[in-house]
Amino acid sequence: MDSGKVLLGLLAGLAAGATLGILLAPEKGKTTRRRMINKGNDYVEELEDKFNDYMEGVTERFNKTKADATKMAAQWKHKVEKAEHEMLDGKQ
Length: 92
Known about the structure:
Blueprint: H1 3-23, H2 29-91
């Protein structure tokens, strides 16, 4: 299972549990709404942080793969050019 899906499921479960806990708490409506908004903001910030961390990891892997591919392409180009020169030198 994809780690992103697991993380999203975990955060959704936490949010649902916190929401139910707040809604069932014996407090004034205004206080409950304020707590729900604060908790929601906390979860949004946490989700943003996790998403940003995930995207940084993806970006790092992409850049590494791109650099590796560029290096391999340069090596193959050099080998092809070398073989081409050897073939041309051999025909003369």
